[in-house]
Amino acid sequence: MKKILFSSILLFPLIGFGLSVSDIEDLVGYRILGKKIITGWYDPDSGKKGTSFEGCNYGRLIIFTDNTFLRCEDYNYDYDYMPSAIILANTYNFKMIVGHTIYNMSR
After folding, report:
1. 50 beta partners
2. What residues does each domain of the chain span?
3. How far is Cα 72 from Cα 70, in angstroms, rounded to an integer?
């Protein structure tokens, strides 16, 4: 009974964040590290940068208000100004949830 209750407590906030149950299945084994605000991005290959969130390009650095960053490992376009991001990690990988999208990330 405790396992079901514990799973429900973790599941409801993620569903409330706009994710479906099938999205959440991909997050089994990840733990939530925290919530951060995205302040911009930087593409090391082109030298371009921005002060809003414009999704991920391969290798793009996503910069947070605490001056930390994660590197995008896939592509997905989205736009928002200073959105919240939920950061998750397992032993080897990171994921970032922004809006209704889960991004594969690395350090």
Report:
1. 41
2. 29-106
3. 7
